[in-house]
Amino acid sequence: MRLVVVSNRVSAPNREGKAGVGGLAVALRAALRERGGVWFGWSGRVSEAPAELPHIVQRGRVGYAVVDITPLDRDEYYLGFANRALWPNMHYRLGLTQFSRAEFAGYMRVNRRFAAALAAIIEPDDLIWVHDYHLIPFAAELRRLGIQNRIGYFHHIPWPPIDVFGALPGAGDLLTALAAYDLVGVHTERDAGNLARSFAEPVGGMPVPAAPRIIALPIGIDTAAFRAAAQHADANSVVQRMISGLGDRPLVIGVDRLDYSKGIVERLEAFERFLVANPDRRGNVTLLQIAPPSRSEVPEYEQVGRQTDETLGRINSSLGDTGWMPIRFVKRSYTRPVLAGLFRNAAVGLVTPMRDGMNLVAKEYVAAQRPDDPGVLVLSRFAGAAEQMREALIVNPFDKFEVAEAIGTALAMPKDERIARWRVLYEGLCRHDIGWWTQSFLDALTASAPLAALPRFS
Ligand code: ADP
Ligand code: G6P
Q: Among 3.40.50.2000, 1.20.272.10, 3.90.1170.50, 1.20.1250.20, what is the CATH number of 3-216?
């Protein structure tokens, strides 16, 4: 059966082998590389009169089928409803949620257009797998066109409790749309519970349809490939330059899209707190924060960019010295080998989102470590990854004192304990890698067996 993957962001490999930044693009590339298939979605381009049929490019075993959108589509669908309403709501940020009826209509319209474009190229046996919050109504639109294939959906961001989700105008319509899928996947048991409960009570007076089948299936990474990249990275000149610039100082690393959900400002403040509480560490440790800009035309993202710059400037100027800057902040993206090499040389991985569907950086950091001298992962309890990665130092990112203490604990952790924790985490990453995730979802989508009989991660 041919696999057809559908997502807003499609990441065709470029010549430097740079993956798109963002967990979904990185993960779907790994999944399709193993299995082959078609990847359909937005080209990333905006044009006044987009062609109605997709532009198809074959690269190895993957056919990329992409369509452009109009400037209005981009404003209403991508920058609007998807990223100013759904994204903040689903990351529990009611105060940041901006809803407009025109944007909601634009979101539905683009889903309809995308569905019509895909309908023109699918075959009766295709297995269709739709990804993420941009495309919740996609299956309902395909069904309207008479498409009867099996269609699965995976939600890569959190699913909040009904008191939060129910506040989103359009929530009832989204649940109705979701019911058109044969299977809906989320990363955690918590999200699965919240989603199932959303179907159990009426939202905004609207009757709610019967829930689709829901599965909690935590996404993995290509553990073997990332580890191999890390093993070869010491020879990489970018990694070497970066590491030699640190001297003997231990490195603490953070890598995230510049997004308010990632808690970057809060993380910088926690690191400041750590330095204030431990004056002997001043001059002796560096935080490298890599944060490429993301969705910068969305005002809330522009604002977090400004806050980050201000916080960074304040901390570096108040605590830095002529020969030492506490925080190095880099806004560009790197190839996977370079990232793997930087992770491998970092004594601490700081992954402290305020809320996150999964967080693949936490997994990549662990996969990159040296087995005989691994670093320590400090992980937010509000990342989906915390449900699996219990041997990390789990913290509350809203408490900068606690995060500061965890940084100290991580830097001082004896080697035996580091090795013991790392082994358990790494074994989990090998068992539940991207191949396991893809296969488990597709098995569940094709099976008619009750979900209780299907593989679970614990
Ligand atoms: P999100 O999907 O919300 O961005 P994840 O942590 O799940 O968060 O996934 C982010 C992905 O993007 C990871 O695979 C990470 O390695 C990659 N990434 C993040 N920042 C960079 C960067 N500066 N350069 C290259 N890849 C990056
Ligand atoms: C998260 C979302 C993805 C999205 C990515 C990058 O991982 O879950 O759907 O692709 O962020 O964001 P962007 O808006 O650039 O696609």
A: 3.40.50.2000
Main-chain dihedrals φ then ψ at residue 128, nearest 5 degrees = -105, 130
**Least distant ligand from the CA of 359:** 1
Task: For residue range 127-157, list pLDDT tens digits in order.
Answer: 999 999 999 999 999 999 999 999 999 999 9
Which of 9, 69, 81, 83 best tests ligand 2's pocket when mutated (most atoms within 8 Å of CB)?
A: 9
All CATH 3.40.50.2000 domain ranges in the chain, comma separated: 3-216, 223-432
Of ligand 1's listed atoms, the one at least distance from the Cα of 292 is 23
Say which of 91, 131, 134, 156 is annotated catalytic.
156
Q: Per-residue pLDDT tens for 87-103?
A: 999 999 999 999 999 99
Active site residue 356: yes
Residue 351 has pLDDT above 90, yes or no: yes
- Looking at domain 223-432, which of 1.10.600.10, 3.40.50.2000, 3.40.30.20, 3.40.1190.10 is its CATH number? 3.40.50.2000
Measure Cα distances from 336 to 229, 295, 353 in Å. 7, 21, 21
What is the amino acid identity at position 123? E
Task: Indicate the burial class of 138 (C-beta count within 10 angstroms; 0-12, 13-18, 19 or more).
Answer: buried
What is the per-residue pLDDT across 366-382, written as a single tens digit (0 to 9) for each?
999 999 999 999 999 99
